[in-house]
From TrEMBL, chains A, B:
Designated name of the protein: L-carnitine dehydrogenase
Signal peptide feature range: none
Gene Ontology biological process terms, A to Z: fatty acid metabolic process
Lineage per the UniProt record: Bacteria, Bacillati, Actinomycetota, Actinomycetes, Micrococcales
PANTHER family documented for this protein: 3-HYDROXYACYL-COA DEHYDROGENASE FAMILY PROTEIN, 3-HYDROXYBUTYRYL-COA DEHYDROGENASE
Amino-acid biosynthesis as UniProt keyword: no
Organism field: Brevibacterium rongguiense
Amino acid sequence: MAVRPPLRPLDSVDTAACVGAGTIGGGWAAYFLSRGMRVRVWDPSPDAPEKLERLIDAAWPALTELGLAPGADRSAWSVHTDLAEALEGVGFVQESAPEVLEVKQRLLADIAAAAPADVVIGSSTSGYSMTEMAGLAADPSHLVVGHPFNPSYLIPLVEVVGGAATEPAAVAWAAAFYERLGKSVIRMDAEVPGFIANRLQEALWREALHMVDNGEATVEQIDRSITDGPGLRWPLQGPMLTFHLAGGEGGMAHMLDHFGPSLLSPWTRLEAPELTDRLRDAVIAGSDDEVGERTFEQLVHARDASIIAVRKAVASVREAYESAAAQAAREIDGAAEREEG
Amino acid sequence: MAVRPPLRPLDSVDTAACVGAGTIGGGWAAYFLSRGMRVRVWDPSPDAPEKLERLIDAAWPALTELGLAPGADRSAWSVHTDLAEALEGVGFVQESAPEVLEVKQRLLADIAAAAPADVVIGSSTSGYSMTEMAGLAADPSHLVVGHPFNPSYLIPLVEVVGGAATEPAAVAWAAAFYERLGKSVIRMDAEVPGFIANRLQEALWREALHMVDNGEATVEQIDRSITDGPGLRWPLQGPMLTFHLAGGEGGMAHMLDHFGPSLLSPWTRLEAPELTDRLRDAVIAGSDDEVGERTFEQLVHARDASIIAVRKAVASVREAYESAAAQAAREIDGAAEREEG
């Protein structure tokens, strides 16, 4: 392996390559544009430019509402069918190819070979580890997972983790790069199948499938149990902090000591870990760290204010879209009547 | 068992009893008051009136912002230490005693014996089945689970299900009563441990505990993976509809056919059910029912608008409370400096 130059300075990066321009890759392209970058896209399908243009058109009002970077230009992109051409002069590469291991392996090897030697390459994979995906790369040292969430231009979370052969400096660079762009980065030290958010989502999803399978709940009931229940708490305070608050002034310690035995209840098909002293103390210490200086009363007030604000926000969206849908239905009915008449 | 009179008409109910006035019971009291009802509380602890007054004071601004019913009076409540006295003349009873089976059994038997014969009795239990809890009641026919979520004055969801000896009419009455009060009711046909939302939450919570236990994620990373990720989608569209949209125009059918094999991946410790044709078809049909007449494009626009609105709502709450906390910290520092000086 040739000696590589140092990674380029973050503030010199003004162009990104998006390899693959489907829903996720196209979302990344729109996001990079909104942050004032230029984007070079590799996508071999003939309708890629047209689809990408539609996606950017659809995303731009949302991105504008959240705030564009100075100089953001929605048309500062080009599509290339030659990979080396797409990677020319870029300061970062985001790979968002279909979720097929062999495809990812081949493509990441080609990208690593063709990209400038001082750039980092992020993969949008939602489930493969970089150690698996990097298998064909001659030099995998700059290959990093940067896992976004759909829609990738609106959801802040990006999970960042390297593979066995990734340079730690490349992982740190990727985390800093995404953060600089306004993303909320979780940098993981170890590769875990499904990363963090997908493991949590997947546990919930599998329990939901079991319930449908056993006739215990309908799809609509499952969704409403979240949208009108815990889902209203989670945009401000995650499941751990929610549990901490449910413990009242006694917090997480009270909850674990009081409700610990319910971990043995068949409230889900997932077996709980044994609530050892070590686990108990780790969860309490983690909650205390997260809470920091905030008092119980401050947390409760913020939670309540957030639930109200979120309920109002969602109600206004429901009203706008339900009345729009009703209006569209009336127009279709009207047109049908006119045709009949 | 004596023949019971028919259940009283919903629109004649203007007084509710709250048995137990802790966080959940007190929250119910505040909510009933905000809907224009009078509330009679049974709680034997000497500081119950003072604590309830504090809880109502804290909840009232939020309830006012969400809209009070005409005639709502925050002081229309009384606390009683005698159960029969508390139940005098009420049109509904909500039991929110501590989550201890023997306590619930004894109390529900006493309530069923002392309450007016034509009223329904709802229990806030978060995990016991009514069949278990009703064991000591001479007449359990009006005993129904009405499971709320903390804070019970702000979260709309109530899960309603009867026990083996509950009259179906009492379950229907309870569902209609909560709905009339503005709650989002899920009426379950069968008793399932943990009901619906808690089963889903519990699966996620147990996966989170496993991750902490194995050093795979910190408490803060787990919370942020939800607050900055999927948690932003869930207040408008639940996990099933989210998955449907992730399938693009092909919807849930595309997702199940394409990502079905990932159910075998170790993305959580919870084993998935086998994706049989029957389960596949049930999930697709349920998603189609939930979507109704809405087009894919309408769903995507509503989702994006909701994510933006929720992000803005949460950001404004964060800013308000973080600056308040910072201000409080400055004041404390200032006071400390003055003392030192």
